[in-house]
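[Backbone geometry]
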Amino acid sequence: MADNRKYYYLKLKESYFDDDAIVLLESMPDGILYSNILLKLYLKSLKNGGKLQLDENIPYTAQMIATLTRQQVGTVERALGIFQQLGLVEQLHGGLLYMTDIELMIGQSSTEAERKRAARLANKALPPPRTNGGHLSDIRPPEIEIKKEIDIEIEKERELETGQAPARCYGRYNNVFLSNTELDELKAENCAVSPEMSAPDALLIRSAKLHDAVFNKELLCIGRAGIGVDNIPIERCTAEGIAVFNTPGANADSVKELLLCALTMASRDIVGAVEWVESLAPEGDKIPALVEKGKNAFAGPEISGKRLGVIGLGAIGSRVANAALKLDMEVSGYDPYLSVDSAWNLSSKVEHVTDLNVLFRTCDYLTMHIHSTPETFHYLNAETFAKMKPGMRILNFARGELVDDNALLAAIESGQVASYVTDFPNAKLVGKKNVVCFPHLGATTPEAEEKCAVMAAREIVDYLRNGNIRNSVNLPNATLDRLGKSRLCLIHRNRPGMLNRFLEIIAAGNVNVEHMLNKARGEIAYTIFDTTEHLDEAAAEEMRAIPGVTRVRLLG
């Protein structure tokens, strides 16, 4: 019987070693060695979709990786730490390591398919060069032909394995955690979910970096299982008519719980106290007496009865405010853009402040839950620190860029700021007095990861099925109940006369509009038409030809 083993291969772009992270890595002492380890880890993770594990239940340890890469354990541990700092490796719940860029690098085939491709390609001859008015670029490069053959063969293999043609591609997931129940729900919606689709309608991602990705023309949307979207080329997606979703509020409980822990750590030097106790290990039986003698060095105030200022009262901020009330704190909140939904979820005991300076003057603790934008860059700076109540204790579990680190350290040195607890460490902050840095743990719980994935999946399905937009970061939010026989969805420039032009084309086909919605977000607009009769593709093509129209979709 012919050998037919499945194998995986690593796909690297020619610019791989020019990536900033790789350049920085190889510039370090032993950087070339670390780069070699990184490539070996990519290879070891391919068959598991980027996860470094022996099987589903056994993640690779540093010792196991050292054995596999034939390196010292200490070298591997240093390499893994550097990889995480550079965003090349991410530690998931349970200690499982994930290669963050792997989605763009996984290739797979089988030995039998490879033999078939080799035989077909051997029988194919490239056309001779065109010399009369043509260009050499008109000739299809062999690598494109090979890639096409691979894709064809993979689809054929899937069809033979399943006994049916591949379902329409509705998703791609990797490093995104969905329960079996949620996956079954997606499949019940006739959604094929796989990390191996060559031309999906949607991408479901968590930390995968897409700035260098080449999007297939069928791609309609990207769902980010989390809040931050700095790993997605937003402007390019908008220009190509690709909706980008995130999942605000899905990790709110996880962040809230960690912040409650941080409140106590902002009051008492718990980290220093634990380190001091551990240093007493050689003292043996003397430890109890030494502890009683030295414990006052780590004392700090209670949080009960103190006032907490909350900047941003969205999903996370409102939860933090409500929880702080239950800890017998007084709470003041500032949010000039407070939504109706957030207001409903906020306790009436939270004092709503309209002047930010009031928070600075009256609060003992301050926490921020706002987005990082050009307008909020260094939101807390030398000027704002000077306005604060002396001894302010600050918590930042939103984004590191919100705080001017140099001004912060100066305020700590002067005593204006008593302590700073953040989930965003950097070289300026780590190891500094009265600064506690967490390794971006806010949403790092299995519950938050699943909630984010589920929310992103539902946003994607609603958009693909109904054209509804919820929690988009680049398009206006627009939801409309389905009426009529056909739905037309358009992404276009927000210009005068566009709606009239669309309506003229619809009317020309003797089709009536039963329901419609038009929303704008800056220069971009999104329009939904529900019609009494089915529109034909010719009408859609006529709309695509209108200057300023980016995407036209007909939904049955």
About this structure: DSSP finds 19 helices and 22 strands in the chain.
